[in-house]
Structure formats: C-alpha cells, structure tokens
Automatic annotation (TrEMBL), chains A, B:
Pfam families: TetR_N. This is TetR family transcriptional regulator. SUPFAM superfamilies: Homeodomain-like, Tetracyclin repressor-like, C-terminal domain. Residues 1-15 have a biased composition (Low complexity). Keywords: DNA-binding, Transcription, Transcription regulation. Residues 21-81 form the HTH tetR-type domain. PROSITE patterns: HTH_TETR_2 (PS50977). Gene3D superfamilies: Tetracycline Repressor, domain 2. Residues 1-21 are annotated as: Disordered. Residues 44-63 bind DNA. GO terms for molecular function: DNA binding.
Amino acid sequence: MPTGTSTTSRPSGRPRGADTAARREDILRVAAELFSVDGYRGTSMSRVAKAAGISHTGLVHHFPTKDDLLGAVMDRRDELDTARAFADAGARPTGWDYLHAMVQMVRNNEEHPGMVRLFTTVSGEAVDPEHPANAWLRRHHEATVRRLRNAFQQAAEAGQLAPDAPLDAMCRLIVAAMDGLQTQWLTGTAPGMADELACLVEAFEARWRR
Amino acid sequence: MPTGTSTTSRPSGRPRGADTAARREDILRVAAELFSVDGYRGTSMSRVAKAAGISHTGLVHHFPTKDDLLGAVMDRRDELDTARAFADAGARPTGWDYLHAMVQMVRNNEEHPGMVRLFTTVSGEAVDPEHPANAWLRRHHEATVRRLRNAFQQAAEAGQLAPDAPLDAMCRLIVAAMDGLQTQWLTGTAPGMADELACLVEAFEARWRR
DNA sequence: CCTACCGATCGGTAGG
DNA sequence: CCTACCGATCGGTAGG
C-alpha cells in the first residue's frame, strides 16, 4: 500500500497539516527559550534545530530565515501575553482600575520567568535600529503607552484625574518601570516586580487622582 | 640605532608607556562604540581590532580575552559616569536634593547617547547569569540602590519622609525608571528622559515627603 | 507537481 | 605588535 498519495483520505501515513502546526509550535517554544537566555545574536539556527529535534534544513523549511523565526517567536510572545491578560480580567478595566489590573498582570508575570527573560534580552539587543526586532520593540512600547493613555483619558472624563497631570510622562514612566523592574527581578536585585509597580501607582494617585 | 630598548632615556623610538596607555584608551573607546550598537555577543575581536587600527593579535596583547575587554569597557563607562556626576555637583547633595540631582544627571546623559546605548545593550545581554557582565550589572544596580537608600534615610532623619514610606521599593522603582526610560529614549518612543524621571520624583514627594 | 524533511556542503567568519 | 594559522561553527542552500 502506497504512502503519501494524493487521495483525500489517508487511513495511514502522516497527518500533514496538523503535523506542520504542531512542529512549528515546538520550534517556537524551544527558540523562545534559547533567545531568552542567549539572545537573538547569541543563538544559532543549528542550536534551535537540535533543541527542537529536527535537522537544520528542516528548521529552515518552516522558517526560511533567522529573522522570520525571531518575528514568529515575538508574535507568539505577544499572543500569549494578551491571552493571559484577558484570562485574568474578562473585560478590560477602565480608568484607574486599568492601572491596578496592570499591577496584577505583572504579578502574574512573576510566574513566567522565561517570558520575562525573552522580553528583556531581546529588548536590549533591539535598541539597535538595524536589529530585526527593532520594529517589534517600538510597536510594543507604543501600543502599551496607547492603552495606558486611554485609561488615563477615561479617568479624566470621569473627573478622577487632575487636569494638569503630565499624561505622556506618566504613561512612559509606567512602561519604563515595568521594563526596568524585569531586569532587576531577573538578576535578583529585586525580589518581585508587582509590589514595586503598585508603589508607583500609589504615588501617582496621591499626586494626580481626583 | 635600536628602537624600544630598556634604557631610561630614549631620544628616538616609541615612548612605550605613554603609547600603551593611549592605545588602550583608543581600543576602549572604539570597543565601547561597537558594543553599544551590536552588543558583546554581536561584536568580534577582529572588528574591534580593525576599528582601532591594529591587528587582531595586537588587540589580544592588550586584552588577553574578550571578557577582559568587556570588563575594561564597563569599568571605563562607570568612571566616566562618576566623573560627570561629580563635575555637575561639587559635593553630593543629601536627602530629597539627591533625587533632584539625579534628574539633572539624567538630563546630562541625554547629551551622551553612546553611553546610554552601551549601558542598555549590555544590560540586556547581562541578565543571563553566564554572561561575563552579569556581576557588573548586579554591582551597578546594588550600588545605585544603596546611594538612593542613603539619601532617603537622610531625608527620614531630617523628618522629611513619611515613616511608612516603602524605601526599598522606591529605590528600585527609580533605578527601574532610569533604565526603562533609556530604552524608550533610544528607540524614539520618548523624546527625553529627565522630564519623565522628574515626574516620578514629584509623585513620590506628593505621597511620602513630610 | 505537492508536503515535509534529509545528509551534505557552500563561502566566510568566530574567538583564540 | 605582525603573519600565519587552528578547530568549530555561522546562516543559508544544493539536489534528491
């Protein structure tokens, strides 16, 4: 009995479509782990292939270039990040509640050091305008700032924000604090991240909440 | 006439001691530039040598391993950083004044993008415990936190700090904000860093200054 | 002509 | 400090 014919029903042989999706997921998982420790520049395609249990050329078949692989890894990170954020709070909180939900999201991140390491390591390399993840980093920061800005504007419309509050600076500060706390947490300088971020939100409320 | 003998007076030939120090400084300057863009892992000894105008083995003569070179580059960064911090304020301010002086120091850093890039890029790689700059990164963060803690304790002794202020979290937040703002500034998400940091200090004062 | 790979090797470069 | 090299590994591609 021939295997891999062009007939529509295949009682034996490899289920091709499903295998491809599962294989890609395997690759993305091990690549994320390697990038998170050694960075994009410090990780070779061969090492990713070996960790995924396939050949180098097998890896290239799924991701033609190393840049393609990085892009897929970071897209997957964002998807998992968003999925977890939504799982925590069914509907997205608004106004100051959004800030407190963000603290909870950071507390959740303390259970996922691999994700935090991936973000921090790749961000460090990606400040170089020539780095393949530079556009991703800018997009990520701008999207995060935008969501914070929306929350502050909701607070303002509800009369809960001082009219002279420096909106943009506050948004950027929260993003900066989250990024910087990750570095300190990963190196052991800080025991956590959420309590520190909560301290920032508390100070903001003391100064600019109405 | 022989060149480079061990006699004390050399009317001709290369003044060796001076040359060595100057050459090392040249190497450290170009290495800092390369590390700041491509990172430690993304920079080769050969490329450093070429940029410094010497051979690969000539570079190895001054810095036996790549790790030695990185250590010297980061030590030099810290020296220049400290020198500029002292130049700004003759004596180190105390209490809340120290926080405001730090904002001024960050404003000064906006004139030195290369230094900021070096710090951010190497920090990103160095969260890996196996990275040669991991110890440097931890030392840097702990020293910065210690100086901030001293300042807050001076404020407390002067009765200018609420007794329930979360000292450690505040110190780590300031360090995190400085690090994170550097990333956003380098990628163009934020137009500056000092105004944002000043916003953090203002919020802290509103919440915990007495 | 398709898919999901394989073993082998391309021209160059890495740190030392 | 140079020329001349090493063992190995880089990202990417060949034909089958």
